[in-house]
Specification:
Layout: H1 13-25, H2 29-33, H3 43-62, H4 76-94, H5 99-119, H6 140-161, H7 170-180, H8 184-187, E1 198-204, E2 209-216, E3 219-223, E4 232-237, H9 238-245, H10 251-257, E5 259-262, H11 264-267
Parallel strand pairs: 1-4
Antiparallel strand pairs: 1-2, 2-3, 4-5
Helix pairs in contact: 1-5, 1-6, 3-4, 3-5, 3-6, 6-7, 7-9
């Protein structure tokens, strides 16, 4: 058996940001107005959201500045509502910016974000826990990996909306999938099974791999490269996997593309993978 290792992706940020800038500079005026997988947002809005998240992270985390409008967040529902409100306000504010200015600000703020993340101890406690993985405290490396998935999947939405090639090589996409699938033990927390039960999740494609859940002492444990025969197996493509995790594909549509072996009841909870907040 092999345990999952920390996901260290800080050095990917300038590359992904550079790819984003090149992509946006190539867009036509009509491309900017095109619809995306984010139901309420067009291409420009998704790019604006990427800028807004850069600026908010730098202001709050790097500079220690909290907006005086921040409410008292007591519950998970409060957090979701607040994030949705901030996302909406950020997108609306950025509609005042020209595409040129939007791109320039993305380029400079993206570089600043990379430099800030590079200065952090990856194994120190993060300011923000990865809540969709069930953590109340996370290490910086996991929080940074979560932020990387945001940068990657929103850029991918722009690429799909404008007919541009995706950043789906293993270098870029495998860390996204590996980060998302760290949520499996949390997703399966209410799924009962006897100790020793093993579930295999296979993501197919060049950026894919195998992840295993093992039931031990009444809890699920995430492992890699397990030799034992699983009681259930789920196979899905890399495209289905990232879209399922980011609400870009509904559960019913995703299930139709998956292959289940063994106990389907043990396999189906994977459909609950949602690795975004809001």
């Amino acid at each position: 058996m092999k345990l999952p290792a920390p996901i260290l992706v800080t050095d990917l940020f300038p590359r992904v940001n550079r790819e984003l800038v090149v992509l946006l500079r190539d867009l036509s005026p009509d491309d900017w107005k095109g619809p995306t997988a984010c139901a309420r947002w067009n291409v420009r809005d998704v790019a604006s959201h990427l800028l807004d998240t850069n600026l908010r992270r730098l202001a709050l985390h790097r500079d220690g500045y909290a907006s005086p409008d921040t409410p008292d967040l007591r519950t998970d529902r409060d957090l979701v509502e607040f994030i949705n409100q901030m996302n909406d306000l950020g997108v609306k504010a950025a509609r005042r910016l020209s595409p040129r200015l939007l791109i320039e600000l993305l380029e400079t703020s993206g570089q600043q974000l990379f430099e800030f993340f590079r200065a952090l101890d990856p194994f120190a406690p993060a300011m923000f826990p990865v809540s969709w993985a069930g953590e109340s405290e996370s290490a910086n490396w996991f929080d940074i990996a979560r932020e990387y998935t945001e940068k990657w999947h929103h850029q991918e939405q722009i690429r799909e909306a404008t007919g541009r090639p995706g950043l789906t090589s293993r270098e870029y996409l495998f860390p996204v999938l590996d980060t998302f699938l760290r949520a499996l033990p949390h997703i399966y927390r209410h799924t009962q099974a006897t100790d020793g039960t093993l579930i295999r999740i296979e993501v197919t494609g060049p950026a894919g791999g195998d992840w295993f859940l093992l039931r031990e002492q009444g809890q699920w444990r995430l492992l890699l490269e397990v030799a034992e025969k699983p009681a259930a197996e789920v196979e899905m493509s890399q495209d289905v996997a990232w879209k399922l995790c980011t609400k870009g594909l509904g559960q019913a549509a995703a299930e139709q593309t998956m292959r289940f072996s063994g106990s389907r009841d043990l396999g189906r909870p994977v459909l609950n993978l949602t690795c975004i907040v809001g």
